[in-house]
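Project standup — Tuesday

K.O.: blocked on the structure for the chain from last sprint. Re-posting the sequence here as requested.
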Amino acid sequence: MRSSEFHYAAPWAWTLLCVLPAVLLAAFSRSLRTRRGPPSAAGERLLPAILIFCVPATLGGAALSFYGLLGRSGALEENPFFLGGIGLLGAVVLVLPLALWLRGRLNPVFTLPTAGLARRVPSGRPGVLRLASPFFRALAVVLLLVGLARPQVSTVESDVYTEGMDIIITLDLSTTMRAVDFSPPGRASERLSRIEGAKQVIADFIRQRSHDRLGLVVFSGEAFTQCPLTLDYSVIVNILQTLRPGVIEDGTAIGDALMVSVNRLRDSESKSKAIILVTDGDDNMSRIAPTQAAETAAEMNIRVFPILVGRGGQVPYPVGTDAFGNVHYQNVEMRTNPELLKNIATLSKGEFYQATDTQALRQDLQSVLDHMEKTRLMDPGRFTRHTEIFQLLLLGALLALLLDLCLRWSPRLRSFP
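H.V.: unblocked you, prediction finished:
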């Protein structure tokens, strides 16, 4: 069942409703008391250029920021679109004070010998559009206050029933997964590290699922559950993107990883239960023998599908960087044990695969699905996805401020005296 809710994540921001207008009123009063100098020819040329820059920079910065937020893959601080958008918006924030200062310098100043002459000067008639300037200012303040309260739309899913299977993806995070002997699809001349190639294919595999419950187990010298069985694929993909080799104690504990995965499937009611084991090496640190773990999986009707990524022998491996940040590679002897993985697949009634590029790995994952039988599953619990919409309100506030400035600085809408 799915439902949507609207709420504010930071309702305390509404207290600014009383504080911010007082600050704006004080700033406005101070500006009225500030003595302004004569107009500057350089300022007259620079001010239109600043306005021309601010409008497209605000629109472009907001568009890039939203694109980086919606289509992010990895940390935001590493997303070039998000960083570029924030940079453009930051440039607008830095340039606007200069524009305001120049605007103050451009106010016309006339020296009259007596006050009587000033009374004879006819008043300007700016028209009805002049009334729109205060409206845009007030609109910007309101949108800013609502945006600071962080409005969110929450999508809630609970007790999801579906037809599918239970799959645990068991991923090797040993340092040997940094070896660069994977090829992106259609680009055989290029090289990709094993871990990055595996993560890309697994992420695509997860996104293509619609009714299968998936879980994630990672291992190196030790094995850990990163995500239990769930239908919330976005959680698994986000976790997968943060995984890096070398974080866990180095080594390859295939037997321990299989036992952790088996424990995650122990209470599953699905007819089809599978473990997809993605590794590139030989077992060397397990406290439980991999074959014993495979026999335990077979007793619980769990099938293991080992996938050996990469190849053995001399393989390019990153050994450091130079002064310019370029990565240096050196051929290193990599040990694999395909016979052990084949034995695990045989004992657990699974299949063994070997992939040397992303296309082969993608085909192997699809082949695993072809061997499985779907059943009716229930994913209990309550899952909530929060979508932030404060960015739209802040963008509206910026646009309202720019419209206000354009109206107030337009020669046709100025009032005199």
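K.O.: great, moving the ticket to review. The CA atoms of residues 98 and 359 lie 55 Å apart. Residues 31-37 have pLDDT under 50 and may be disordered.
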